[in-house]
Structures are given as C-alpha cells and as structure tokens.
From TrEMBL:
This is N-acetyl-alpha-D-glucosaminyl L-malate synthase BshA. Transmembrane segments: none annotated. Residues 16-178 form the Glycosyltransferase subfamily 4-like N-terminal domain. Residues 196-348 form the Glycosyl transferase family domain. Signal peptide: none annotated.
Length: 386
C-alpha cells in the first residue's frame, strides 16, 4: 500500500505566522513525497516557485444578488469537499479554528468519515475569538469534531482547555524554522545603510496590531538610546503604524528610527539586528522570535503566552512582565553593552533554534499525527536535529 499521503491544507494565505507555518509545512511534506493541495482564497505568499507535489485550488466566492455578505466560508467548505473527493484526499489540515476548522467539519459531512480533519490552533483564534460568547460554541464544536487538534504552545493548550472547557487531548506541536533559510546571514553592508559602526540595532517585526504593544517598543528604545548609541528598525505594516510614527515624532526620535515596510527575506533583515523586541500583550508562540533566534539574535520581550516556552530568560533573551518597559530597557542595555554576554546569547540562540525547533523533527511530528488519525503505522523514524 502507498505510504504517502494526500493532504489538503487551508490557511490564511497572507496573514502572519500561521500562514507561514502552514505553507512551509506543506512544502516540507511535498519534499517527502506527500501530495499537498492548498485550498485557499489566494496563493499562500510563501509558496514561491513551482514545486513538485504541490497543488493550489482557489476558492471562488459566489456573489449572488441577495447576499449582503458573500458567504466565503460556505464556498471554502464546498471547495474542500470537492477537492477531497476529486483528489481522494486522506485528510484536511486546517490552520485556525475560525472559519477553517468549521469549514473542514462541514466538508467532512459532505465527503464522509474517511476524510480526517487535523486542526492547528495558532493564537487569537482562541485567545481573542474564543472569548466572544457568540463564537464560543462554534469553536468548541470545530475542536471537538476534529480528528486531531494541535496547538503551537503549552500555554495555548491551557488557554483553549480553560476557555472552552475542552476535554479531548490536544497535541503540542511547536512552530519550526527551516535551517536552510534561517541562519546568520552576512548583513554587514546592509547594516551600514542604517547604523554607524558604534551603533546597535534594535528591531521589531510584526503586523502592528494592538496585541503587539508597539508603543512599548518605542518607549524601550527611548530609554535605551539615552545610554547606548542605537537605531530602531520597524519591519511590517499594520493598523498601529500611524500611532507609532506620531509617537516617534513627538519624542524627537525620528532620525534614529527607520521603517522598512513589509519584507520577504526576513532572515536577511533580522541578521542586521542586535536584539529583537517582542513586548506583546498576547503571543501564543512568537514565530518571529524563533526566526531571530535561528539567525543568532536574542529577544527582549514580555512573558506573554507561549513566549517563555521559546525564549529562555537569561539564556536566549530576557523576558519581563507585560508593559514593564523599564525592565525591558535595562535588559536591552545589559545585552547591548556586554559583548561577552551578547556572544554567549548568540551561541545559545543558534543551538536552541537549530536543535529544538528544526523543520525535519516538527514536520515528522505532524506526520505522526496524520498517520495516527488514519490508523496507519508511521513509516519513518523521527529525524534528529542539529
Ligand atoms: O492569531 C494571530 O494573532 C495571528 C497569527 C498569525 O497568523 O500570525 O499569529 C499567531 O500564530 C503564530 C504562528 O503560530 C504565532 O507565532 C503567534 O504567536 C500567534 N499570535 C498571537 O498569539 C497573537
């Protein structure tokens, strides 16, 4: 019997870390010989060029005249069922409970029980949406009806169980980095474009939503640059951007802060930084801190959510209570003014990212879950990282 699987993947094709993880996982699975079918409303932005075993099925929304809001979710569920039948998919792996796990549940009703559903919870689908009473029952249904559920940190599992009173097991499957892409790049010449040789670079990368607490990034930087010659680089775009720009102008810091906008080659950009700033209010994992770690860059951040499971306080970064900008600034100054400490942290970052969060091992963890729900033996041994 053919051991390779036919897997449908649905994710938000253009939204942050969950889309990145889903797409990179699909590419890794395709490299292993599995057939991967992305089902989404546009091509996932990390998909890149043609790769064997990867297929893309676009969801088209029917804009019938009685619809005030064209029903994307129903079109997605229908497309999932159509692709599952036509391609004889073994399973759907959906990233995000709302609406993807709900759509997968509907698709399964149309296709039959042989189609298995694996749901991965990433963050605000639980920490924000599951607090909404009008969505709670729907999210609980989608979680309980999935054949397997994974979450990207212990903290997210705890929060899911507590908020939704979930009794079923949830597998912990951390996010990962592709070691072929995330390693310290030579950024010397790029660095010269932004900072003088004696200046340190602090960096923040996000979608600038309120949960990222970008105002804390600015406040920490204000305190740091009073003690250490430094620059602050913002990478990304999002709703809080105008507020940050206003605050920076008001503080008279505009000549020391640079906005790089959205960037594709994050490994190259992060390699310029001395520290990454992640002072989030909520963060189930913090993929960007892992990407930084894999490039040898420590994180100064908050103790929110799953961040402490990833960033080891005093080893691969420093963590403070949410909103404690003074402690964050002190930690950043400590790291930026002690070259020996910075070198130790850099080594610890590289070791941790490449040993504990490598693509091969985590991809295998997902495969184990797939074979388990299908009631089949896992055909390969778990690879060792490093
Ligand atoms: O849920 C969100 O806020 C967006 C989501 C995303 O698509 O980037 O981020 C979540 O998933 C990422 C990938 O697993 C995690 O690294 C982020 O920590 C998580 N965001 C939050 O928990 C705020």
């Amino acid at each position: 019997m053919d051991q390779k699987l036919k897997i449908g993947i649905t994710c938000y094709p253009s939204l942050g870390g969950s889309g990145v993880v889903a797409t990179e996982l699909g590419k890794l699975l395709a490299e292993q010989g599995h057939q991967v079918h992305f089902i989404a409303n546009s091509i996932p932005f990390r998909l890149g060029t043609f790769q064997k075993n990867i297929f893309y099925h676009e969801v088209e929304v029917n804009d019938y005249y009685v619809f005030r809001y064209p029903p994307y979710d129903l079109s997605l569920a229908t497309k999932m069922a159509q692709v599952a039948k036509a391609q004889q998919l073994d399973l759907l792996h959906v990233h995000y409970a709302v609406p993807h796990a709900v759509c997968a549940f509907l698709a399964k009703q149309m296709v039959g029980d042989d189609l298995k559903v694996v749901t991965t919870l990433h963050g605000t689908d639980i920490t924000v949406l599951a607090q909404d009473e009008s969505l709670k029952d729907l999210i609980r249904l989608a979680i309980n009806e999935s054949d397997a559920v994974t979450a990207v940190s212990r903290d997210l599992i705890r929060e899911t169980v507590d908020l939704l009173d979930i009794q079923r097991p949830i597998d912990l499957t951390y996010n990962f980095i592709d070691k072929r892409i995330y390693y310290p790049r030579d950024a010397a010449s790029l660095r010269r474009d932004f900072a003088a040789p004696n200046e340190k670079i602090l960096m923040h990368i996000s979608n600038f939503r309120p949960v990222k607490r970008t105002q804390d990034v600015v406040e920490v930087f204000r305190q740091v640059q009073e003690q250490v010659p430094a620059r602050l680089l913002f990478v990304g775009e999002g709703p809080d951007l105008p507020k940050i720009q206003w605050k920076i102008n008001e503080m008279g810091l505009s000549d020391r802060v640079h906005f790089l906008g959205k960037q594709d080659d994050i490994a190259q950009v992060i390699s310029m930084a001395d520290v990454l700033m992640l002072p989030s209010e909520k963060e189930s994992f913090g993929l960007v801190a892992l990407e930084a770690m894999a490039c040898g860059v420590p994180t100064i951040g908050s103790q929110a959510g799953g961040i402490p499971e990833l960033v080891l306080h005093g080893k691969t970064g420093f963590l403070s209570p949410i909103g404690d900008t003074q402690s964050m600034a002190e930690n950043a100054i400590r790291l930026l003014t002690d070259d020996r400490l910075a070198a130790e942290f850099r080594e610890a970052c590289l070791h941790r990212a490449h040993h504990d969060f490598c693509n091969d091992a985590i991809r295998h963890e997902y495969e184990e879950i797939y074979y388990r729900v299908l009631g089949r033996e896992v055909p390969s041994l778990k690879p060792v990282c490093g």
